[in-house]
Amino acid sequence: MSNTWNETNSDAMEEEVKKLMAALKTFTKVDKKCNAYLGLIEECKKWLIFLPLVTSLRHPSMRERHWDAIRELVKSDFKVDAKLLLEEVYDLNLGKYNDDVEEITDQAGQEARMESTLKTFAETWKDIEYVYDKHKGSDVQMLRMDEDSFDMLEEHQTLCTAMFSSRYLVTFEDEVNSW
């Protein structure tokens, strides 16, 4: 609990908790009725919910807007930095908000993919060369690109259209509309 939450190996801790749960299940029926056993089982269950949330929250896709949503959810104004202790995160009682926290972390991941795709668009299309050709029998200039660029255009149009169906579009809506 005194580790910073960033240096905590939540996956290894989860494996240890699972081993403890397996060991607890080998107890006799009489032992399973005692308060200590019941308390340990309850605490293990809390950790098995909490630790995957820690893993999700540490994902690099989490931005300040996502942390603001978590703060609002748990009604706490904690600061996410290198000094944040695992105990402080545990005390937020995130397991109580499991579905909502998972929704926020999923949103962060989806938005990160969308952001990456938009960066790819910008990087790709800044250097595309267009050729102007005269239309047969007139002075009208026609815009043309090579076949590879045209294929890429179709692929990017498909990706862009798919972004419109995302429920997380709102963050990048203006940029997606511009594409």
Q: What strand line-up does the widest sheet have? A: 1-2
Mean pLDDT: 90
Q: Uncertain regions: pLDDT < 50 for 5+ in a row? A: none
User: What is the radius of gyration computed over CA atoms, rounded to a whole number of angstroms?
Assistant: 26 Å
Helix content: 55-70%
Query: Structural class, judged by helices and strands?
Result: mainly alpha
Query: How does the major sheet shape up?
Result: 2 strands, antiparallel
Number of domains: 2
Distance between the termini: 47 Å
Task: Write down how many β-strands occur, each being a DSSP E stretch of 2 or more residues.
Answer: 2
Q: How many H/I helical runs?
A: 7
User: What is the general shape?
Assistant: elongated
Element order: H for helix, E for strand: HHHHHEEHH
Give the percentage of residues in beta strands: under 5%
Summarize the structure.
This protein is mainly alpha-helical and 179 residues long. The chain has seven helices and two strands; from the N terminus they run αααααββαα. The protein folds into two domains: 10-106, no CATH class; 112-178, no CATH class.
Describe the structure.
The protein is mainly alpha-helical and 179 residues long. It has 2 domains: 97 residues, no CATH class; 67 residues, no CATH class. The chain is built from 7 helices and 2 strands; from the N terminus they run αααααββαα. The protein has a two-stranded antiparallel sheet with strand order 1-2. A hairpin with a 6-residue loop joins β1 and β2. α3 runs antiparallel to α5.
